[in-house]
Amino acid sequence: MRSFKDSAARNWDVSIDAWGIKQVAARTGFQIGTLLDDNMAGFGALVKDPVKFVDVLFVLLTDQVTKFGITEEQFFRGLAGDPLEAAYEAFRGAFADFSPSHLRKILNAATEKAKVAQHAATERVLRKIEALDPLGEEPSASTSSRSATAPPESPASIPAG
Q: Which of 41, 44, 70 is nearest to 58 (CA)?
């Protein structure tokens, strides 16, 4: 069982079993079994649709929602930012736990590789942002033909970089 906390500090335990998969299909139309299709494209599609993801999670956690005495709206509002990311991780882990061992190994390896790739992509984008010149000036002010007192160029006249 995997856990995460929502933005109201409620602790949720995510577990996936055949009954939960059946309930998700019946109530949302989403087929959890398709997550591994097309080189795990199903996971990507679910992550790109946070409303669908939270719908799926809501069905899996219905018993806990009832115990907490909260509404569907309160559940949805509790999942944004870091709590949403934690819920994704708990769901991925629960899906791996549900899967047979040969698939679990693949899922765990793919998850670790995806984390490394995500970290590398984030660092690459941050380096590009840090390298941006907010004034759009040439790298060396001494080689620029623009006067320091000249009015700034319009955004439309600055070449895309």
A: 70
- What global pTM score does this model have? 0.73
Q: Tens digits of per-residue pLDDT, 28-52?
A: 999 998 888 887 788 888 889 999 9
Say how far apart CA 101 and CA 139 lie, in whole Å.
54
Which neighbouring-strand residues pair with 14? 2
Which residues touch 98 (CB under 8 Å, ≥6 apart)?
15, 16, 17
Judging by beta carbons within 10 Å of its beta carbon (0-12, 13-18, 19+), is residue 116 exposed, middle or buried?
Answer: exposed
The single residue listed with the structure tokens 């007192």 is 149
Six token digits for residue 101: 């061992």
SS3 category, 120: helix
Angstrom distance (rounded) from CA 99 to CA 116: 23
| CA-wise closest residue to 16 among 27, 1, 31 | 1
Residue type, 78: G
